[in-house]
Amino acid sequence: QLLHLYELHGHGSTIFDRLRHRGPDWSGIHSFEDCYLAHQRLAIVDPTSGDQPLYNEDKTVVVTVNGEIYNHEELKAKLKHHKFQTGSDCEVIAHLYEEYGEEFVDMLDGMFSFVLLDTRDKSFIAARDAIGICPLYMGWGLDGSVWFSSEMKALSDDCERFISFPPGHLYSSKTGGLRRWYNPPWFSESIPSAPYDPLLIRESFEKAVIKRLMTDVPFGVLLSGGLDSSLVASVVSRHLAETKVARQWGNKLHTFCIGLKGSPDLKAAKEVADYLGTVHHELHFTVQEGIDALEEVIYHIETYDVTTIRASTPMFLMSRKIKSLGVKMVLSGEGSDEIFGGYLYFHKAPNKKELHEETCRKIKALHLYDCLRANKATSAWGLEARVPFLDKNFINVAMDLDPECKMIRRDLGRMEKWVLRNAFDDEKKPYLPKHILYRQKEQFSDGVGYSWIDGLKDHANAHVSDSMMTNASFVYPENTPTTKEAYYYRTVFEKFYPKNAARLTVPGGPSVACSTAKAVEWDAAWSKLLDPSGRAALGVHDAAYEEEKAPASVDPVLENAFHPPAHGES
């Protein structure tokens, strides 16, 4: 799903080739004087008539869109005097612009990035969804051209500078600048005070899942067996029969999981699938298969961030197999840990203010990490990932809660994400088995099998020498790699994306168990073990790194304190 508007002739075939993987179903292009919009389509809603670019009635407004607009029917009802040419959910953007001008973006409920050209005055706008679920890059050529693309690889040759387009922002050629259109209450990071309402949490999430079942093609759910993906699968299972897609493709849900043989995720996912009665597809990979795919993975996901690459590789391998089964869309559980403080390092949050500010920082950075992974690892094979936890309304509900209820309190029996677990703890009509509902957080790169990360480190150690690490700060002065694994990924990334602008699109800074740099300050011991694996959360993860690999100063209060309750316990 290529988004491209540029004021430069030529390059069309190269651009199409570079992003054809994102949309193998159709290629479309529109030119007006020296402006061009091109699109590679992955057809999910209205496959027969929704080819892009899309237009208003007289074709003076042209738009290319990557994403899904879940409230398009509601928006069409406000545009009754407009004539729609297709059944595409994205066509509504052209008509909304015609009706409301540039201020319509906040009306959209969905995931999207788009470029719109108004041929009447040769102006254009570009916008990205609130959280940055859909990728978008912006670039500038030496000749004064302006470029937009879903992936960096389409800009890296022709643009002198390019950036990751910020989420929740709009660019207008009329003003020549970016402005933020997404301004929710939580963005200021002030401490909210709404009381905990488990039914509101449950109902808001169920609505978020149901609206994402808008599809005219076969779909499934990525099921790791952890809390988040299991809740997505459970809610889909409950409501699938009443949807349009069930009438088209049947009401049996397909679920997918990948891991090394014997991994924690495979076992847990099978148990959840059996409980929900899904058609479950258990996929395996070996450490060597993952290592062999690393270069291709880094090319597609366009980052050298260690955590992202660790988790993207199994997701990339799984997506290829899913697409081969004829599935074109999947629902996934990204975003929950950021919203509810689910990562294991949140056990050390000193107070509710620090916890809330960290969740805000994590959500604001999602487009650089989990959203990037979920979109690009799947889009590499023409598969679309939808993420109900990142629904705009659900985020507002969850982030409006008094953060005291998100604090991990052993004395009150509250583990990480207790707020969410408790909301779906229904004794009369259980969503999940109790021990799954209260399973400890397992990061995807850990859950596929602990030997996966150990294998990556061994591979990097064999390719990166001690002298290379000694000189790392001279070779890579920006975001200097601090481990051999990080150094190895950086060399691969620089091979594909050698420009300074490319390396600046990747965030840096210390992290433990996926924390921000600020949260590393919560525990002095963490500064000695800066590893993004959940096992680096010493004294918290049940399979934490052994003492000889880690600092000895472990908080005795937290040591093995947080185990999931046994079956039948609340």
TrEMBL record:
Entry keyword set: Amino-acid biosynthesis, Asparagine biosynthesis, ATP-binding, Glutamine amidotransferase, Ligase, Nucleotide-binding
Binding of L-glutamine, residues: 89
Site (Important for beta-aspartyl-AMP intermediate formation): 334
Class in the EC hierarchy, top level: ligase
GO cellular component, one term: cytosol
Pathway assignment: Amino-acid biosynthesis; L-asparagine biosynthesis
Keyword ATP-binding found: yes
One Pfam short name: GATase_7
GO BP of this protein: asparagine biosynthetic process; response to stress
EC number(s) reported in the record: 6.3.5.4
UniProt keyword Glycosyltransferase present: no
UniProt domain Glutamine amidotransferase type-2: residue ranges: 1-176
Substrates-to-products reaction catalysed: L-aspartate + L-glutamine + ATP + H2O = L-asparagine + L-glutamate + AMP + diphosphate + H(+)
Chain residue ranges for the region called Disordered: 549-570
Binding site for ATP: 222, 258, 332-333
UniProt GO molecular function: asparagine synthase (glutamine-hydrolyzing) activity; ATP binding
InterPro entries tied to this protein: Asn_synth_AEB (IPR006426), Asn_synthase (IPR001962), Asn_Synthetase (IPR050795), AsnB_N (IPR033738), GATase_2_dom (IPR017932), Ntn_hydrolases_N (IPR029055), Rossmann-like_a/b/a_fold (IPR014729)
Record's function text: Essential for nitrogen assimilation, distribution and remobilization within the plant via the phloem.
Protein name: Asparagine synthetase [glutamine-hydrolyzing]
Gene source species: Aegilops tauschii subsp. strangulata (Goatgrass)
